[in-house]
Amino acid sequence: MECVVTLKPLDPGQYGQLKYASAFVDEHIDDILLDESLQQLTVIHHSPLGNDVIRERLERLVTRFSKGDFGFKENRIFEHSGAKPYSGDIMADLLAQKTIKVLEPGLFIFREPFSQLMRFMDHAFVQK
Questions:
Q1: Is the pTM higher than 0.85?
Q2: Which domains does the chain have, with CATH numbers?
Q3: 31 near 23, Cβ under 8 Å?
Q4: Cα–Cα distance for residue pair 4/55, rounded to 1 Å
Q5: CB 94 within 8 A of CB 100
Q6: What is the rounded distance in angstroms from the CA atom of residue 106 to the CA atom of residue 5?
Q7: Which position has the higher pLDDT, 127 or 16?
Q8: Residues paired with 45 in a beta bridge
Q9: 28, 46 in Cβ contact below 8 A?
Q10: I need a surface site. Which of 11, 44, 120, 126 has the fewest CB within 10 A?
Q11: Hey, how many other C-beta atoms are within 10 angstroms of the C-beta on 43?
Q12: Using the 8-state DSSP alphabet, how is residue 70 labeled?
């Protein structure tokens, strides 16, 4: 079953926390999808209680989150912004460049120059 709830009463900064809290609404939840552009939360479940009970619990959560500030407090003392040196899927790029080779899931072989960098880090931070 699929249950969709609107997130319009919430601040967008609270979406992630609501998604996390929604996982505890019922023990039969399979997946939680957050669509920020549509401002809705979709919960896929197989609860014997039915869609109405799940929707009511989710709406209670949305109401509770909309009444209070449950967000993390930010105190930025200093910020230095600049261009990101890299943005993308680093693992896919390193695999495509053959800098990393996957032996099996979670087990890799690192080639030059990556292995040199790892040896440097090991020597500079671990062995000294």
A1: no
A2: 2-67 (3.30.70.100), 90-127 (no CATH)
A3: no
A4: 7
A5: yes
A6: 37
A7: 16
A8: 29
A9: yes
A10: 126
A11: 25
A12: -
